[in-house]
Amino acid sequence: MAKKMWEGVTEANTNKAADDFNASIRFDQRMYKQDITGSMAHARMLAKQGILTDAEADALCDGLAGILEDLQSGKLPVDETAEDIHMFVEQELTQRLGDVGKKLHTARSRNDQVALDIRLYLREETDILLEKIRGFVRVIADQAEVYKDTICPGYTHLQRAQPITFGHHLLSYAMMLLRDADRLRDCRRRMNMSPIGCCALAGTTYDTDRVFEAGRLGFDGICRNSLDGVSDRDFALEMLSDIAILMMHLSRMAEEVILWSSWEFRFVKLDDAYTTGSSIMPQKRNPDMAELVRGKTGRVYGDLMALLTTLKGLPLAYNKDMQEDKESIFDAVDTAKACVDIFTGVIATLKAIPENMKKAAGEGFINATDLADYLVRKGLPFRSAYKISGQIVKQCMQEGLVLENLPLEKYREHSELFDTDVYDAVDLQNCVNRRLSAGGPGLASVEEQLNWVRGQLD
Ligand code: ARG
Predict the structure, then answer these.
(1) How far apart are CA 150 and CA 155, in angstroms?
(2) Which residue among 9, 39, 228, 277 has the highest number of C-beta atoms inside a 10 angstrom radius?
(3) How many Cβ atoms sit within 10 Å of the Cβ of residue 9?
(4) All residues at 6 or more sequence positions from 43 whose CB lies less than 8 Å from its CB, including other chains
(5) CA-CA distance, 156 to 164, in Å (whole number)?
């Protein structure tokens, strides 16, 4: 049985199993820096308002700085019998400073304190994740540059569809990731409002200055309703949603990397540093990193669902259920950072095998649309041209030919409009280079996309 700081109307003697069940210190100790930073700003605000003396605030801030240093150096171990990180810091401060330590918790509650700490924590994590995404996009852009004229088949329904370049394909992921970054920045803007000073739920009778305290902590403003301030976890939900979308993008890319590196495709070779062998089959080069990224995506979706579900039935304001927010939040953020890191390495070291891409591009009649377009240029309506092209493809398939080597007289059996320039029209390189519509795979268009992506990174 342990004595509690909240001894008041209750004896504060709870059952040991209940203590353990109730505690969050095992996982919320990672927010110690944010907790201490928040407390320092709080002490300064209390002094500015004359609620504490300047000397008291100085003592509190020095004491807090000492605790921070000792935690960072490992000199001060976290006492896991404390209920949570907020209790632990306050308890340690009081041990070090005596009575003045007990003044820190004036005009606040753990409810606004924890809401503050999570915001501070996620704000930092957002910036870290944004930096990682930026590094990843840079790597994608560099690879897209290398492969900007490497022809490969573009797919729909996983059927070879039309010719593109590998650089064009890679750049599509840069676009997705830039949107992910944009979403995170947007989320950060709403996150950056301070709940501190909402207190337990109903504000306080002390003459506090929440705007001052928010400003010291780098917030853009304050939560405007005290009940909402302590109850709101939208910012975490938004961040987890954004991360879930980011993971979905990584997972799609991972799936393609897995396909491309398969023996069936052999479009790319993954670097040895990012593949694993099999314990029994010596020929294997397994794309484990990509598979794990794909797998971890499910787990991040789970984190988002867990948090949504935790919150959905809660009456205002704080309920202890909310303590369950942290593990999902931390897990999602840790997982996303690790996945972006590892996938940056996978893509940076990946090598395309252009011959295999070219070969696949040459076998799938992916220039059939271009053949139809050729007839359209000669005056046929698209639907009629489409039909003729289809018949020609069918004939090629029967005779084991491709559009590039079907003799002209055979073409002319289908339409008088065919001439020798048809071979120019179905040449894959020409097919790609002619696709200069904005956003298309033509070299000039890809270069434009590349410039735009690089511009976004600056
Ligand atoms: N450890 C708690 C949490 O993570 C802190 C807030 C506790 N507040 C309370 N009134 N019990 O949510």
Answers:
(1) 15
(2) 39
(3) 6
(4) 52, 56, 57, 60, 61, 64, 104
(5) 12
Q: Which residue CA neighbors atom 12 of ligand 1 most closely?
A: 323
> Separation of 245 CA from ligand 1 center, angstroms?
29
328 classed as catalytic: no
Q: Output the CA 16–ligand 1 centroid distance in Å.
A: 18
Q: Is the peptide bond before 55 cis (omega within 30 degrees of 0)?
A: no
**Domains in the chain: ranges and CATH:** 19-106 (1.10.275.10), 115-188+231-359 (1.20.200.10), 368-426 (1.10.40.30)
pLDDT per residue over 118-143, tens digit each?
999 999 999 999 999 999 999 999 99
The model's pTM:
0.94
Residue holding tokens 């509190």? 60
Catalytic position from the list 24, 39, 249, 278: 278
Instruction: Write down the mean pLDDT value for the chain.
Output: 95
Residue 157 appears among annotated catalytic residues: yes
140/150 Cα distance (integer angstroms): 15
Residue having the nearest C-alpha atom to atom 3 of ligand 1 = 323
| Over residues 213-220, mean pLDDT | 98
- pLDDT at 152 exceeding the cut of 70: yes
| DSSP, residue by residue, 16-38 | HHHHHHH--HHHHGGGHHHHHHH
454-458: long-range contacts at Cβ-Cβ below 8 A with a sequence spacing of 24 or more?
Answer: 454/141, 456/137, 456/178, 457/134, 457/137, 457/138, 457/141
Q: Which amino acid is at 14?
A: T
